[in-house]
Amino acid sequence: MKILCISDATDTLIYSTVAPDLYKDVDFVISAGDLPLRYYDYIQTMLKKDVWYVYGNHNLEEFGRMMKGSSGDSLMRRYAEDSAHNLPVFGGCFVDGKCIYDSYHDLIIMGLGGSMLYNNGESQYSEKQMQWRINRLIPRLLYNKKKYGRALDILITHAPPRGMGDGEDLCHKGFECFLSFMEKYKPRYLLHGHVHLDDINARRVYEFGETKVINIYKNYILEDETLGKK
Fold first, then answer.
1. Is residue 143 within a helix (H) or strand (E), and if so which, with residue range?
2. Where are the alpha helices (DSSP H) in 6-136?
3. Torsion-angle region of residue 178: left (phi > 0), alpha (psi -120 to 50) or beta?
4. Of residues 67 and 214, which shows the higher confidence score?
5. Which of 157, 161, 213, 224 stands 20 to 30 A from 3 (CA)?
6. Confidence band (pLDDT; 50, 70, 90) for 65?
7. pTM for the complete prediction?
8. Based on C-alpha coordinates, what's the Rg of the chain?
9. Buried residues in 130-146 as b, exposed as e (16+ CB within 10 A)
10. What is the pLDDT of residue 229?
11. Residues 119-146: pLDDT tens digits?
12. 221 near 199, Cβ under 8 Å?
């Protein structure tokens, strides 16, 4: 399986007419947030691949509306142009605060967007609030374990786990509850953004137990032949 992973900064190679040829062999796209919704729509239109995404702590267009409807299991959230509300058109598979089984790829994907609470803005959470978001999804994780033999394959977050490439400032501090989550539910991957890697030699990948933690800032190709069924 080949996944195009994006976060935090648009990429001229993706935002171009060569993208369909360059990324024609990817199975789908994952975003860890802080990108414009129209970027997702462009990618989905050009590549004809699903885009699974969460919110970061910036680029929060339609955040309130999307989070309000995040309890459902619909794979697609699309708002057509509405003359009364002047809503933009955009596409993507919104998984922030959800845990969804993708039967086509035989993958269980969960999303926990947002950063550490630092100025009381939207899509910011205290450690306790993020743990509460996790607790809401425990019944679904237990159901997955019973039905599919594992709780989760890929966890998409915006912020990193504490101590794995995060910063010391409150805004970029990672969540400690992600560590206990990985220990208990053992996702194959935790994919995050938030920490910008302007140095191409900066460390992207960490390992925690059975989970590989990857900073997917800007553009990262994840290839794993053992992941999923196609």
1. helix 138-148
2. 19-22, 37-47, 63-68, 127-136
3. alpha
4. 214
5. 161
6. confident
7. 0.91
8. 17
9. bbebbeebeebbeebee
10. 63
11. 999 999 999 999 999 999 999 999 999 9
12. no
Please count the other Cβ atoms lying within 10 Å of the Cβ belonging to residue 22.
14
> CA-CA distances (angstroms) from residue 58 to 31, 39, 76, 127, 128?
13, 14, 22, 19, 21
User: In sequence order, which residues have a C-beta less than 8 Å from that of residue 177 and are 6 or more positions away?
Assistant: 127, 130, 131, 134
Residue reference for tokens 């950063």: 115
Smallest CA-to-CA distance from 50 within 9, 86, 96, 95 is with 95
Q: Which of 73, 49, 44 is nearest to 1 (CA)?
A: 49
Q: Which two tokens stand for residue 91?
A: 């596409």
Token duo for residue 89: 């058109």
DSSP one-letter code for 170:
G
Residue where the block lists tokens 């789908």: 28
